[in-house]
């Protein structure tokens, strides 16, 4: 599975970092999300699904492939 | 069944599926649009920066993958708690084993026969955007977060903006007087006229009428004076309603019935008080929590105890706040400088740190305050120099 992050949509809430700290971080200056792991391991996918669900900008997708 | 197809309702539906529920799942929404995001309405949609194509919360394929009985453009009109069924505006009746109420809020309006905009739905935002031309005189009634955001965007589009606010200091009840003054100053610095302590009694053909009889002329009027929970459809159902659907700490309103999002008033054990939160992040979090509790065994349910979070974009300011600021006893500036519009303010309620609001600060740094609030940190530990800048 692959994570897609729509950077221009990000509102810097940091919700993804709290849900999946191994997959996301925030830029220091403006808080915009950074994707640390484009293809996270199986054990992280639940965290990523949580991040997809809580992102207030609907900026994250988890896709096949 | 989930009543309400916006952020909370969608989060609930997705969580039900993720948690393994594979039975019939009906999602009804009164708007004709597939679930979309509301915060950009008063920001990128109003400014024209984004097209509406960027608003859907999920791609069509992702929505389809949920296998929903999706009924858009169809309001829920009645609830039968005894027979466990919801009546819809098209005359149909949907039986349920479990129900999540996420019917949201609608804008308060003002009396009068003049034409006035509100800003809640996509259609509202597009109607206002269509009218905002350079030089047009816009009166915004209400200088809360929504009114302030819309005023800032309209100013950027070249409109001549007047903000009318009944309170002496906008937002003071929510964020405190000093912070409210800082946020207000941004309007004045940008040439937006801000009139405080004025009450609008009606919208007329040519503008708005104030309580003292004065007519404030306008080409367009935006009314942003708060919202009302959509609970009328539950009248007579036996479900407890008041300012929202009244729920316990699990977001349960009646056996098998939960509520989430703007419409839900629940007991938040982290703050020891009942609250109804109209924030985008809460909609998703509460939709998820309600769905999990609906499916859980009674002793496996978990109280919904979030630290609320919201953000607001006004002019070049980014405002972020964690916690429950309303009813606070004290505000202390703990970082930065109010006058520079770059600061963190901490909020005390009782003996505890209950909130933090930041303007122009790096979001990552502000997040530390969330942890301190979630941990119920005692005020003197959170703010060692407390008391020096009380508001």
UniProtKB/TrEMBL annotation, chain A:
<dbReference type="GO" id="GO:0005506">
    <property type="term" value="F:iron ion binding"/>
</dbReference>
<feature type="domain" description="4Fe-4S ferredoxin-type">
    <location>
        <begin position="1"/>
        <end position="29"/>
    </location>
</feature>
<keyword id="KW-0249">Electron transport</keyword>
<protein>
    <recommendedName>
        <fullName>Ferredoxin</fullName>
    </recommendedName>
</protein>
<dbReference type="InterPro" id="IPR051269">
    <property type="entry name" value="Fe-S_cluster_ET"/>
</dbReference>
<keyword id="KW-0411">Iron-sulfur</keyword>
<keyword id="KW-0813">Transport</keyword>
<dbReference type="InterPro" id="IPR001080">
    <property type="entry name" value="3Fe4S_ferredoxin"/>
</dbReference>
<comment type="function">
    <text>Ferredoxins are iron-sulfur proteins that transfer electrons in a wide variety of metabolic reactions.</text>
</comment>
<keyword id="KW-0003">3Fe-4S</keyword>
<dbReference type="InterPro" id="IPR017896">
    <property type="entry name" value="4Fe4S_Fe-S-bd"/>
</dbReference>
<dbReference type="GO" id="GO:0009055">
    <property type="term" value="F:electron transfer activity"/>
</dbReference>
<dbReference type="Pfam" id="PF13370">
    <property type="entry name" value="Fer4_13"/>
</dbReference>
<keyword id="KW-0479">Metal-binding</keyword>
<keyword id="KW-0408">Iron</keyword>
<dbReference type="GO" id="GO:0051538">
    <property type="term" value="F:3 iron, 4 sulfur cluster binding"/>
</dbReference>
UniProtKB/TrEMBL annotation, chain B:
<dbReference type="InterPro" id="IPR028202">
    <property type="entry name" value="Reductase_C"/>
</dbReference>
<dbReference type="InterPro" id="IPR023753">
    <property type="entry name" value="FAD/NAD-binding_dom"/>
</dbReference>
<feature type="domain" description="FAD/NAD(P)-binding">
    <location>
        <begin position="2"/>
        <end position="287"/>
    </location>
</feature>
<keyword id="KW-0285">Flavoprotein</keyword>
<dbReference type="GO" id="GO:0005737">
    <property type="term" value="C:cytoplasm"/>
</dbReference>
<dbReference type="GO" id="GO:0016651">
    <property type="term" value="F:oxidoreductase activity, acting on NAD(P)H"/>
</dbReference>
<feature type="domain" description="Reductase C-terminal">
    <location>
        <begin position="309"/>
        <end position="380"/>
    </location>
</feature>
<dbReference type="InterPro" id="IPR036188">
    <property type="entry name" value="FAD/NAD-bd_sf"/>
</dbReference>
<dbReference type="InterPro" id="IPR016156">
    <property type="entry name" value="FAD/NAD-linked_Rdtase_dimer_sf"/>
</dbReference>
<keyword id="KW-0560">Oxidoreductase</keyword>
<dbReference type="Pfam" id="PF07992">
    <property type="entry name" value="Pyr_redox_2"/>
</dbReference>
<protein>
    <submittedName>
        <fullName>NAD(P)/FAD-dependent oxidoreductase</fullName>
    </submittedName>
</protein>
<dbReference type="Pfam" id="PF14759">
    <property type="entry name" value="Reductase_C"/>
</dbReference>
<dbReference type="InterPro" id="IPR050446">
    <property type="entry name" value="FAD-oxidoreductase/Apoptosis"/>
</dbReference>
<keyword id="KW-0274">FAD</keyword>
